[in-house]
Amino acid sequence: MEQKGDWKLNKEIAQLTEEIESVKNLVAEAGEIEELEKLGDESLTKEIEAKKAGLLKSVEEQEIKTYLAGIYDRNDAIIEVWAGAGGVDAEDWTTMLLRMYQRYCQDQFATKVISQSFGEGGGPEGRIGTKSVALEIKGPYAYGILKRESGTHRLVRQSPFSAKKTRHTSFATVEVLPILENKEMTEIKEEDIRIDLFRSSGPGGQNVNKRETAVRLTHLPTNLVASSQSERSQASNREKAMSILNAKIFKKKEEEKKKEMKTIRGEGTGNSWGTQIRSYVLHPYKLVKDNRTGVESSDPENVLDGNLKDFIEAQIKTQ
After folding, report:
1. What percent of the chain has pLDDT over 70?
2. What's the CATH architecture for 184-265?
3. CA 318 to CA 67: how far, in whole Å?
4. Domain 77-179+275-317 identical in fold to domain 184-265
5. How far apart are CA 181 and CA 53, in angstroms?
6. Cβ atoms < 10 Å from Cβ of 90
7. Cα–Cα distance, 136 to 130 (Å, whole number)
8. 108 Cβ neighbours under 8 A, 6+ residues apart
9. Which of 195, 221, 247, 297 is deepest in the core (most CB within 10 A)?
10. Residue 151's pLDDT is what?
11. What's CA 278's distance to the chain center, in Å?
12. What residues does each domain of the chain span?
């Protein structure tokens, strides 16, 4: 029978074995290209160049993976976004961030909105914002790649909700959580959980289900809350919400450990959740700037369309 802590060691061994195999494959591919070049056949030039481009891309991807050494970095992830200060503009900003992450993930991960609370709307073209949303991200290294997106995101623009088009600053908070495997989950006592059932709702507040299948769990000792409304059955939503709750408890414990170590080292505790990590300015000039890495883009529309590669890779390499 597998010992309680053995799964961590087995997981690390499996990860290292996979990494070694990946590097071996890259070396073999480079050798094949070298052999083709030795033939001196000009008709193979296009094929060789295509193979070189593919190999370079694979090497870059492998390089990024070398920075993702955390035991949970290979796990699937949950991205939660909450509207902060800024009223309906902040709710609209939350919807924009949801779209940005969906666009970024579409070519490498599978995504699914598992819970979403909508605002009142009233904006141009019946625009309805989002108070909070949880997005499930499934695929290798989802958590490791996205975890540094956690923090406060700031938007400056001309408000589409203002008749005078005044400049408005909005904030939204992003939190990225690892989806834990069963062996990684904390055992939560039933008496420590409050369960609330409700109907899944859509934009404008209308109920999309006739039955109360959506589930909200509150962990009473920590006051952490998790909900799910994407599944068809109450049992499935409860299971999904429990998975998110476990991830939140894990993240809270990790943050407490970091604060404790900083206190011991005399660095102060700070408040990582309140840190503004990135600004997106659409007016009076155009600029996206990451406050941690200094990476900038003068094309915020492109960034908001999901082109986060430069920002995310810089975060990973400067961790």
Report:
1. 86
2. 2-Layer Sandwich (3.30)
3. 9
4. no
5. 36
6. 23
7. 16
8. 139
9. 247
10. 92
11. 15
12. 6-66, 77-179+275-317, 184-265
Give the other-Cβ count within 10 Å of 1's Cβ: 4
Tokens of 262: 């900083």
Per CATH, the number for 77-179+275-317 is 3.30.70.1660
- In which region does residue 132 sit, left (phi positive, over 0), alpha (psi from -120 to 50) or beta (all else)? beta
HSE at residue 63, side-chain half, CA atoms within 13 A, is: 9
> Two tokens at 144?
């490791």
Q: Give every strand in the sheet of 224-228, ordered side by side.
A: 193-198, 214-219, 224-228
What is the mean predicted confidence (pLDDT) over 110-123?
85
219 forms bridges with which residues in the sheet?
Answer: 193, 224
Res. 194: pLDDT tops 70: yes
272 pLDDT above the threshold of 90: no
**181 residue type, one letter:** E
Nearest to 135 by CA among 172, 110, 152: 110
* pLDDT of 268: 43
Residues 6+ apart with CB under 8 A from 27: none
Task: For residue 185, give both structure tokens.
Answer: 């989950």
Nearest alpha carbon to residue 84 among 8, 167, 156, 152: 152
* Position 298 pLDDT exceeds 90: yes
CA–CA distance, 36 with 42 (Å, rounded to integer): 10
Q: How far apart are CA 148 and CA 79, in angstroms?
A: 11
Identity at 102, one-letter amino acid code: Q
Query: What DSSP letter does each residue of the chain carry, written as one string?
Result: ---TTHHHHHHHHHHHHHHHHHHHHHHHHHHHHHHHHHTT-GGGHHHHHHHHHHHHHHHHHHHHHHT--STTTTS-EEEEEEE-SSHHHHHHHHHHHHHHHHHHHTTTSEEEEEEEEE----SGGG---EEEEEEEEESTTHHHHHGGG-EEEEEEEE-TT-TT--EEEEEEEEEEEEPPPGGGS----GGGEEEEEE--B-GGG-BS-SS--EEEEEETTTTEEEEE-SSSSHHHHHHHHHHHHHHHHHHHHHHHHHHHHHHHHT-----GGG-EEEEEE-SSS-EEEETTT--EES-HHHHHTT--HHHHHHHHHT-
